[in-house]
Design goal:
The complex is a heterodimer of chains A (252) and B (75). Chain A contains 8 helices and 7 strands; from the N terminus they run βαβαβαβαβαβαααβ. Chain A is of the alpha/beta class. A 7-stranded parallel sheet of chain A has the order 3-2-1-4-5-6-7, sandwiched between helices. With 75 residues, chain B is mostly helical. Chain B has a single domain, classed as Non-ribosomal Peptide Synthetase Peptidyl Carrier Protein, Chain A (Orthogonal Bundle), CATH 1.10.1200.10. Chain B is globular. The chains are: A alpha/beta (252), B mainly alpha (75). At the A-B interface, loops of A face loops of B.
Chain lengths: 252, 75
């Protein structure tokens, strides 16, 4: 039996690539109605053309770094268009590698907006009773082990992810009386195009070493996606405020 | 601000689809709870710069009583 049906409307950000794209495909295969959100229309259309059940799939172009404080209103409009939402998978994120001495306000503001502020306002909109389906509705945040384990060069990125972890805890407590669950995935290194974008740092040698250092090896998007689907489904009922490590054992 | 506009903002803060009128008993509004009271405090501070407390709201029986807290700001 599928974990979802087409009445389970789930919005996924960061849908055009990497983990977000994988989650959209897996949710669609599992029977859910997926609203895929990303800023790149061409990539969204390409995903739509490859999706297995296109009738249970919609795309919405949105740049999360532009006026993130209005995303609560935006998601209310989305729910008016498609129906009350059952799940929210907040996968979108950007990475920046820079020593603390190289921090610039423009870069810091951008990463805060995309990785933290946008997720706060999307969650704010989602927990509105008029937007979510109530009992069983679920929010999943995409965090990182960098929020709990120091790593040179990742201070800005890890700050945003640490903020997400803390926000998720309060949100879980506030929204539990309304039957909404809130959980966070703390991923280790994942083989995505984000890694390719920073190929000068994530060189082949670096990735080979990581593959050896991670007791279970580094993760694929599929490894992360399956845990996100679990947290979005009622199979994870009674789980809220959890931080799930999916890191191949590197923090052991 | 006129009453209709304020009641519309109140409805939004309460995340309520159904209409509200000033004669309604607050106890009859299922969305009116301790968390929404805090949101009403923030709404009134943001819109009018008036700092009321949840205790002020505890003394309100009807929607009209909240409006009365705002004096001439809502007509």
């Amino acid at each position: 039996m599928s974990a979802f049906d087409s009445k389970d409307i789930i919005l996924i950000t960061g849908a055009s690539s990497g983990i977000g794209r994988q989650v959209c495909q897996d949710l669609n295969k599992s029977g859910a109605f997926v609203i895929a959100v990303a800023k790149d229309t061409h990539k969204l259309e390409s995903l739509h053309s490859e999706i297995e059940f296109p009738n249970n799939f919609a795309i919405e172009q949105k740049d999360l770094s532009t006026e993130p404080e209005k995303l609560d209103i935006w998601i209310k409009d989305i729910s008016k268009k498609y129906g009350k939402l059952y799940g929210l998978g907040l996968i979108a994120g950007i990475q920046n590698i820079s020593p603390v001495s190289g921090i610039k306000s423009s870069v810091l503001n951008e990463i805060l907006k995309v990785n933290l502020v946008s997720n706060i306002y999307l969650s704010k909109g989602f927990i509105d009773k008029r937007v979510n389906r109530g009992n069983g509705s679920s929010i999943v945040f995409m965090s990182s082990i960098s929020s709990i384990k120091g790593e040179a060069g990742l201070s800005m990125y890890s700050t945003t992810k640490g903020g997400l972890n803390s926000f998720a805890k309060s949100l879980a407590k506030e929204s539990a009386p309304h039957g909404i669950r809130v959980n966070t995935i703390l991923a280790g290194l994942v083989k995505t195009d984000l890694i390719e974008k920073w190929s000068s740092i994530y060189t082949a040698e670096y990735l080979d070493k990581a593959e050896n250092d991670y007791p279970l090896g580094i993760s694929s998007p599929e490894d992360i996606s399956s845990k996100i689907l679990f947290l979005l489904s009622n199979k994870s009922s009674k789980m809220t405020g959890s931080e799930i490590l999916v890191d191949g054992g590197i923090t052991l | 601000m006129d009453k209709a506009e304020f009641i519309e903002k109140l409805k939004d803060v309460l995340q309520r689809d159904e209409e509200i009128d000033e004669e309604m008993q607050l106890d009859d509004i299922v969305e009116y709870d301790s968390m929404s009271q805090l949101n009403i405090v923030v709404l009134i501070d943001t819109e009018f710069g008036i700092l009321i407390t949840p205790e002020d709201l505890d003394e309100c029986v009807k929607v009209r009583d909240i409006i009365l807290l705002l004096g001439d700001n809502v007509i």
